[in-house]
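Can anyone check this?
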Amino acid sequence: MTILKHTPLFSLYAEHPGIRCIDFGGWELPVQFSGIGAEHAAVRERAALFDVSHMGEIWVTGRQAEAYVQQMTTNDVTRLTDGAAQYTLMCNAEGGTVDDLLVYRVSAERYMLVVNAANIDKDYEWLQQHLLPGAALDNRSEATALLALQGPLAGTVLSRLTDAPAVHGLAPFHFLPEAVISGCKVLLSRTGYTGENGFEIYANAADAPVIWRAIMQAGEPAGLVPAGLGARDTLRFEAGLPLYGQELSPAISPLEAGLGLFVKLDKDGGFIGREALVRQKEAGLKRKLVGIEMRERGIPRSHYQVYAMGRPIGEVTSGTQSPTLKRNLGLALLEIGYTAVGTEVEVDIRGKRLKAEVVKTPFYRRPLSGKGVK
């Protein structure tokens, strides 16, 4: 029998009678607390709190820390200043994706890498294999809890528990390395995975229950709810954000996944996989990730085959009925000749080929002001 891992907040799950947990990469995690639709709507309209403590935190320190992170990731870490973060990827020598991650710069000799839960051990081994003299690794995943507070009212809720000017003045992809929430020291980051305004809170595992209860109490007047993996997935999908193992894998390069913005092929020092990605770009991509919308009734699901001109041209990587937009949408990795917006394709849904069309992504963008969907 498989013994599932638990986050530091697992003991609090029992306080929510509607919770439903699943095995997610070896972790027993809530797919929902009350309902995916309601939790999704809370993030879009108010705020919700996620337990994402299963994510991995690997610290890189030493005089060669910057050079080492630069070598291991596709983005340009030298562009970061203290207190700034960036989205990036690690690639193998063939240009496939080892993982996508966030890099936080505390100082030139101190970085935190936040990696996907299912990849913690694999990533740590990969990093160790390529470690430079003068750089050291410390996997603090088990000692670190991570809470994600997301939604248009996230800042309002958080300002009740910490210094309000610091919260509202924190720019996206920046962080406070030593903030205090309800008496607990945390690293407070302005990032997220939902397409909404929000914060991620890194804390000592032992402090997680105190912080969780404090945020839930402070958020009650704003309609804050706890949210699970189900809403996290539908939210990131609407925002066009990739999920490792679906839109990204060792067989899918960042360029194919449409993440070229985070791949700096000309940066100083290069990175593992650069040569392969240069060749891929120069030769021209053979396939690309696009959005599709069903024109006939049906929902495109992961691994459903996509057809054009009577033959298979790719497959769906993620798909659902968008809770916000009420449209049947998917992300699909297709042959390059069929990726232009407006291209008609077909999706094989349970043996029937149903009409669909390539559409723009992301499907959802957060309104700059007021309510509504763009």
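Reply from J.R.: I decoded it. Residues 10-52+142-238 form a domain with the Gyrase A; domain 2 fold (CATH 3.30.1360.120).
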